[in-house]
Design brief:
With 266 residues, the chain is α/β, with parallel strands linked by helices. Helices cover 39% and strands 16% of the residues.
Length: 266
């Protein structure tokens, strides 16, 4: 840890993929490392039916771990009625606290037509509304069409979160004005992410969440390594410095945001 003032402050990883960690970094070991540093909770995110089941299994055996179920837009071409029935069934599990990862992406997955991605997104929105669970949204270069979908559908009361947010100020407030949260990953620590850091002070702190998106996007000083929840305090450090807020106070605020967003009492 580069800043002793944040050692062992409680944190909540709102978007992780422990099931995707390499074999030399078992999920249980990564979980224990994070808990030893103050992790109070983690939500493991489903990106396919299979990984949604894996997320639930992790939530069943690890304390203070919860799951979401969903099909990532990169997998949208494979979404059919059978897959949607499986998601509907899995979404009823008591450890499931969100629907997704779903969304639209015109940058990383141009081979999947936006119309196909949109059909999958709409199915997730309707499931989230039926289950009264928040949406976990992935958006790359597609805020305008994604906002159009959200504006045309009935949304769950707790709306959702734009995970790993890297958009503009206009896009940030487009999400906030619709009742959504913004989650920040290790990207906020990158040298080339000054525009993201410049945005942070303009955002309401009660709508900010933090995540690792592990095993991806490790923050500085771990950039280039396999990311894991134990690295999230480095993202928090940069956010606290950027906001010029007392770390213990901000830590409790973001922890409160995370629990409120997912409807978690623990």
């Amino acid at each position: 840890m580069t800043d002793p003032s944040i050692d062992h402050l409680p944190f909540f990883d709102t978007h992780a993929h422990l099931n995707l960690l390499p074999e030399d970094r078992p999920a249980e070991e990564a979980y224990r490392r994070a808990v030893s540093l103050g992790m109070a909770g983690l939500v493991n995110i489903g990106t396919r039916v299979a990984s949604s089941k894996e997320s639930i299994a992790l939530a069943e055996r690890l304390p203070n771990v919860w799951a979401t179920v969903g099909i990532h837009p990169s997998e949208a071409a494979g979404v059919d009625e059978e897959e949607l029935k499986s998601l509907d069934f899995l979404s009823r599990h008591p450890r499931v606290v969100g629907i997704g990862e779903t969304g639209l992406d015109r940058a990383d997955i141009p081979e999947t037509p936006l119309s196909v991605q949109e059909a999958g997104l709409r199915a997730h929105v309707r499931l989230a509304q039926e289950r009264d669970l928040p949406l976990i949204l992935h958006c790359r270069d597609a805020f305008e069409p994604l906002f159009a979908v959200l504006d045309s559908e009935k949304l769950p009361e707790r709306r959702g979160v734009f995970h790993c947010f890297t958009g503009s100020r206009e896009e940030a407030f487009g999400a906030l004005d619709r009742g959504f949260y913004l989650s920040f990953s290790g990207i906020v620590t990158f040298k080339n992410a000054q525009s993201l850091r410049d945005l942070l002070p303009h955002l309401p702190t009660d709508r900010i969440l933090l995540e690792t998106d592990c095993p991806y996007l490790a923050p500085v000083p771990y950039r280039g390594k396999t990311n894991e929840p134990a690295f999230l305090p480095e993202t928090f450090r940069v956010v606290a410095q950027t906001l010029a807020q007392d770390p213990p106070v901000l830590s409790e605020k973001i922890l409160e945001n995370s629990r409120r967003f997912f409807g978690i009492d623990a």
